[in-house]
Amino acid sequence: MARRWSGVLGLLAGCLVGVAPGWTASVPLQMEPMPWVIESAEYAGELKEQIVRMEARYTIRVIRDGWIEIPLGINGATITDIKIEKKSGEAHVMPRGGRYVLAASRSGTYKVLVKCSHLIVQDSQFEGVHLGIPQATFSTLTLIVPRKEVELRASDALYVESQPDVQRAGVKLTARLGASDQVDLRWRTKPAAPVKIEPVLYGEVQIGVTIEEQLARFTSIIGYRIAQGETRELLVRLPAGMNVLNVRGAGIDDWRVTEGPDDKTLRVALGFPLKDAAYQLIVEGEETIEGQSETYTLPEIRLEGVKQERGHVAVSRSGSIELSPQAVEGINRVDVKELPDALRVGAGSSVMLAFRYHQHPYRATLALTRHEDHPVLSAIAEQAELVTVLSQQGELLTRATYLIKANKKQFVEVLLPEGATLWSCLVSGKSVKPAQGTGKMLLVPLDAMADVTQTVPLELVYFEQRSALVRVGQVTLQGPVLDVPTTVANWFLYAPNDIKFLKMSGNLERGAAAFDFVAEPFGSTIALAAELPAALGVPRSGSAVDELYLKQAATSAPLQAVSERDREEQTSYQPYYGQSEYRVNEKNSEGVMDQVAARVNQMLGRSDDYGPAEVANSFTAPLQETGILPLKIRLPKSGTVYRFNRLMTAQEPLTVRGTFVHLRVPVASLAAVGLLLLLLVGRFAIARLPRAES
Q1: Contact 266, 247 (CB under 8 A)
Q2: Going along 379-420, which residue ranges are E strands?
Q3: What pLDDT band is residue 10 in, cutting at 50, 70 and 90?
Q4: pLDDT digits (tens, 9 = 90+) for 184-215
Q5: Pair 650, 658: CB distance under 8 Å
Q6: What are the pLDDT digits (tens) for 467-524?
Q7: Domain 36-189 belongs in CATH node 2.60.40.3680
Q8: From the CB of residue 287, how many other CB atoms can be counted at a distance below 10 Å?
Q9: Where are the domains of the chain?
Q10: CATH number of the domain at 200-370, out of 1.10.12, 2.60.40, 3.90.1210, 1.10.3470?
């Protein structure tokens, strides 16, 4: 009957598999079953004089017949005895490779008792057991520890229960191990509750107050000395009108200010107990001076919970405010030289008044006399350098570098020439994104962390498209306009060799100003810019490189050094990264811009020939997007250089106008042709004159 039903069920299953759409027969994963398994493991031990003596009882199920070996060792313990308490077949315990194994002959249940002992592990605070055990389906550990109260530290895999053991005056620890392969259980004697000792603190306060037009800024350096006990909280009473901006100190977990009816309380929570040591707390804040008030009362800072307090107050001014004491109570005026070194040095030379106090409350009211400020320059461009590269196609690429010294000026307003496209903007060698101002004005952010005594380099690179330079024409160059005056400016114009300027005019003088300008104010550059000079064979600056360069120059290298005499007339090339000038040896190399374009085409794998301007546009056009920092742009300079300078420029664009002629043949050839024509015309004229009668 059973065989009949099994056949029917198999037929029905076959029909379902063949008929049901989307059903597929799955082949079960073939896995080799384990020949044995430890169904349970029970560990019971007791701590005696730093040694744990333990018994382990294993219930092992052997699944198949035939001799197999089951490891019984406990890593980290010394086995003293092993007994087989139950077996379903022939079984023996034998050593194997430095450990003990159970050898069983057939399937069934085996129970084994293992006795062992091991030393407890200890660190600076805890002691415990750390053992490697055979993995079982379920494991438990019971351990008697002769301690009245213990504090446990167990691994995440352990669930530990603790209960008193009255008979042995200790605690009984029970851990559920699950299927874990190790035991890591630590404990220590729970420390007794400490006797609370009221802390005794001494405090010293050093207050630096800077009075401005409508604001008083303060910095308080509070020094604590703990003479007795400990504390985790510091309390400071502040005036009601004072706003706390920052609180600094070692190990501060949190700080907060609570409002009171007459004042404020600053609570500082420490991450560690403060005891038997000195501690320094720095509190920074500000207080508003209302309207055109003629008096100001110095803030009184009171330390809560201190046995004794003393302090100093240093008063400084900012701007055109005159200070004088008006009413002083409970505080003594002292000489500025009597202030503590930290307070006197931190406030600088602007300290006008100094006070010292030994008690609370105190009151010091100052009279304020305001004087009107006379306007002065907030920023100036000490130096300016403009370098423009002019191509045959009428393309202009200009780098304008300004060395700006500013005092609290956040932005420089820049107006580019009409039709100019900004390619790059750098401040102190770092890329910045100008903001859009009124109209076409650009707002360039300055370095807020810069020292007012130091100059901040500002670099602008912009592109202009003009008509092609053919035959005879005129070119007008106009520089950017800044909202700060410029002390001295130089403008260098690089024109192609076959373009000759017959007349130059504008609001600049011909020739470079006698000023030692830095050719390259910034050290960083983009990866492409770093590779191009090496590809062109231009040596880098440096003593070792200069020596190598002189050797190359003697062997007809493409680039040769130029003397001071040759700079005005010869074709020149000034590397962007160095201080020295070079001229291109036309016999051995092409124009520098053409070399740059060829190198870029080679790097990009282009088969067509792009000109210098097209190459530049191909790099910069995709990057002129919102949120992308500008790149650092290098100017490849080639051709004849023209130099101009001007002193003292303010709110006026630098302008250069030039009338040019495009010479397709060398000047010497034109001169020779002109001389020949002149001789022919003269000879013809002489032949037409009437001969004199003899």
Answers
A1: yes
A2: 379-390, 395-406, 411-415
A3: very low
A4: 888 887 766 666 778 888 999 999 998 888 88
A5: no
A6: 888 888 899 999 999 999 998 999 999 999 888 888 889 999 888 776 654 444 433 3
A7: yes
A8: 20
A9: 36-189, 200-370, 379-687
A10: 2.60.40
